[in-house]
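Q: Sequence in, structure out?
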Amino acid sequence: MDWLQLARTPRIGPVTFFQLLARFGSAKAALAALPGLSSGLKKHTIPGRFEIEKEFETTRAMGGAILRADDADYPNLLGHLAPPPAVLSTLGTPALASRTCVAIVGAREASAAGRKLARDIARDLSEAGIVIVSGLARGIDGEAHAAALEGGTVAVLAGGIDHIYPPQHERLYQLIAENGLLISESAVGYRATARDFPRRNRIVTGISGAVLLVEAAERSGSLISARTALEQNRDVMAVPGSPLDPRYAGTNRLLRDGAILVRNAEDVLEVLNSPSHRELNAPPPPDYFEEHDDHTDIPPAQISRVETVLSQTPVSIEEIALTAQVGEHRCAAILVELELSGRATTYPGGLASLSTS
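A: Exactly. Output:
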């Protein structure tokens, strides 16, 4: 319960969560220390125990589960992100997300040809034992999920696992809950907003060993997924299309920039069987549970120096520490305190900036 309570505390994203865990040794100790770390995070803003127990019981009553990042059922590849989501709410069969997975994403307003291609590739990959992952959106996402139901598919939701979005996918949602897996980083009962979809996309690509884009316009959200996948060291593949069709402008640009061209499921399987992909599936263990800093108070002068060197542009913690003349682990601890007070923002990948809020 302590782990979930810390994860649900405002201003504590995955980066801050694991920094606190490393600094204080446990979620319980971190919760006790929070009110003293920041004037912007008072004790009453930490979710109450009753609220956390209610989330747990509601999730269990649905037939779901809440997984911690150190649980055995937590998706294998996702657990090696830097950092992974601290908790996941799940409904269905968690083991699916630790099998060989491929994400298939693309346009919501997809063409008939694009929809058929997504169905055909998803079906053939599923028959070959590959789990298809997507975001349950209209268009390409829905087609990929539907075609892979028999073999197992994973739908990542931006809202809680009880939030069916879009509404027209209610039947598909029910079938995935019965035969596949629904995953969300959000609490049950939560309704998604625009800012939640990048977090959803990070999980879609993080679970998957490779990502395939089928139809994506020049400014498509699917291109954000492709960029996220590259940052996670995933293989990015794309289906080519006519240069006259704006629905393929994004995928064609990805191919121009080095994405792997895919015509069918056989091309995807060839990528999955390549030596570089096999190396991806043996990542080093994460070190988020190691102790990085002692529990002594941080001098205000050091906090001020770190805040002074921050700007609106995200910069690596290594560079911030060098400029502020503090150790990297101490700098990370200072950034936690600045984030809790609303003065800084940390990002996956070891970056930080001044808060934009």
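The chain has 15 helices and twelve strands.
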